[in-house]
Amino acid sequence: MARLKPSFVCQVCGAVAPRWSGKCEACGAWNAIVEEAAAAPLTGGTAAARALGRGRVVVLEGLTGATDEAPRLASGIAELDRVTGGGFVFGSVLLLGGEPGIGKSTLLLQASAALARSGARVVYVSGEEAAGQVRLRAQRLGLGDAPVALAAETCVEDILATLKDGPQPRLVIVDSIQTLWTGQVESAPGTVTQVRASAQAMIRYAKTTGACIVLVGHVTKDGQIAGPRVVEHMVDAVLSFEGDSGRDFRILRAQKNRFGPTDEIGVFAMTGDGLEEVTNPSALFLGDREPDAPGTAVLAGLEGSRPLLVEIQALVVPSTLGTPRRAVIGWDNARLAMVLAVLEARCGVRLGGHDVHLAVAGGLRVQEPAADLAVAAALVSSMTGSPLPVDAVFFGEVGLTGAVRPVAHPGPRLREAARLGFKRAALPAAAADAAAESGIVALAVPTLDALVARLAARAGAARPNDA
Ligand code: TYD
Ligand code: MG
């Protein structure tokens, strides 16, 4: 192979620079530019045609006509299948990202074993652990009898040769993409060029054979390592496995999915016997609830198509700082600032001299604006020192005018609340009918001010801070 001219590649965003510099001009990352040999152009077409500099004519198709629903390989792990949209799609490549130690290998080993037991040929290629280590883990998880074909290999050419030799696999796991290297490019394993070229080779294999491929990618919190980011646009689906290692539950979330929804979550608990599916996540997230504590409100939330009740905790304390602290865990900073501003401007709740701490209990990350009302309730409850009713849930989006706006799917939220024994709900007026159907007493709040007045009256005081 002719020696290719070296280039300087940012290991964070993949941008190519003409010379080395301390800072990447494209993404602003420091100390991320590394000298690499340039990759050979990766193009399609037959080798002969490319040698002649001419392309091959492809057949153009219209948008009309029938196309089959993408055929899938369901893993039988319901929480995983929910996030992929019903199973791995044949001929597609999925990237499973997550911090080291979160449980990616465990999840994929369990899925591999389940599929292998059901008769599908599954190849598990481990580039990080020796075959013996993977086997030991499988035996510890009670999966030792599953006919998974195991290999410890990192060279892409060897992996592809192995896959082509023997029966065609239905599912191939590559753990992890950072350990792969191909002789096609001269950079070290783990660099952007190697990761990209190796992923490209695996993608081509999936498209030509129809096998499902799952690539594992490690990401770190600060995203410094040459990571899966650079392959995100090449693969068909990107799932991320989250959770903090101090707790035992894990959330699987789709960030990109060409063949399914991106708003579904799967919930697992890491136990001594591997990952267990959590079929009733609301009960899990409300498990440690202290009902009499002021500053906690239960949000009747929704993740994808699944209702999920979570506790929102707020702590409002007088500040000793010139600029009071606003600390948020599990919710959006800007959204909290907005709710605080509306409380201040429209409801007369003065929080300017107070530090505000807000957390979604259990370490979950809530993204929907429907949490506004629960956040506001938790804040007011903390401020007045008066606990909210123990049997009440809250949901509703708050606008800048202080109006409480309707949110999507009130029905499933309220049914979930009723199922878990809640009796009352503070909600947007439009959701009152849905509450009646679920047997929940609705407190329709047209404006945030109405809710604050109600809570203040309950606290047995005038408006908070009015004095
Ligand atoms: P692992 O799947 O190796 O993580 P990743 O591949 O994402 O790096 O999981 C490692 C962690 O999971 C490790 O800290 C131990 C824990 N674990 C359990 O608690 N129970 C188990 O049954 C297994 C297999 C792992
Ligand atoms: Mg691993």
Which properties best describe this structure?
27% helix, binds thymidine-5'-diphosphate, binds magnesium ion, Rossmann fold, alpha/beta, seven-stranded mixed β-sheet, 467 residues, 3 domains, Ribosomal Protein S5, domain 2, 12 helices, 23 strands
Structure in a nutshell:
By secondary structure, this protein is α/β, with parallel strands linked by helices.
Topology:
Blueprint: E1 6-10, E2 16-17, E3 33-37, H1 47-52, E4 72-73, H2 78-84, E5 88-89, E6 93-98, H3 104-117, E7 122-126, H4 131-140, E8 149-152, H5 156-164, E9 171-175, H6 192-209, E10 212-218, E11 237-242, E12 249-257, E13 265-271, E14 274-277, H7 281-285, E15 296-303, E16 306-318, E17 326-329, H8 333-347, E18 354-360, H9 372-384, E19 392-394, E20 397-398, E21 404-405, H10 410-419, E22 424-427, H11 432-438, E23 441-444, H12 448-458
Helix pairs in contact: 8-12, 9-12, 10-11
Notes on the protein architecture:
The chain has helices spanning 47-52, 78-84, 104-117, 131-140, 156-164, 192-209, 281-285, 333-347, 372-384, 410-419, 432-438, 448-458, and strands at 6-10, 16-17, 33-37, 72-73, 88-89, 93-98, 122-126, 149-152, 171-175, 212-218, 237-242, 249-257, 265-271, 274-277, 296-303, 306-318, 326-329, 354-360, 392-394, 397-398, 404-405, 424-427, 441-444. The strands form 5 sheets. A 9-stranded mixed β-sheet has the order 8-7-9-10-6-11-12-13-14. With 467 residues, the chain is of the alpha/beta class. It is globular, with a radius of gyration of 26 Å. The chain is 27% helix and 25% strand. It folds into 3 domains: 1-38; 72-279, Rossmann fold; 283-466, 2-Layer Sandwich (Ribosomal Protein S5, domain 2), CATH 3.30.230. The chain is built from 12 helices and 23 strands. The structure holds thymidine-5'-diphosphate (TYD) and magnesium ion (MG). Thymidine-5'-diphosphate binds next to helix 3.
